[in-house]
Amino acid sequence: MNNEHLIATVRESIEWAALGIEMLGAVIIVAGVLRVAITRGTLRFVLRLDDPGAYESYKHQIGRSLLLGLEFLVAGDVVRTVALEPTLANVAVLGLLVLVRTFLSWTLTVEIEGRWPWQQRR
Fold it and tell me: Could you state, in order of their start, the residue ranges of all structural domains in the chain?
């Protein structure tokens, strides 16, 4: 009975840790977008569309928040799947999630930096 209680406590702790990591990812994305919208001023940005660097700067700042948030979301999924239920079906779902999020990260990197992640910086 004592071992079962310990195992249940460990599983619950891991579940909370995974949830916390995922929530941190979501908070990073929301906070990053709000920070850019408030500090850069979305309305001010829209009114300055004729400024050639305004759009790129705005897009880069939002993209960085999205990239960081995606990394935390993937980490939460990995912790949950590997530590709690490493069944073949769950690992396959994790693989699909990682593929989708990796594709999103790559496309965001291309948008922000103008190069693929594996290419050298100019």
Answer: 2-113
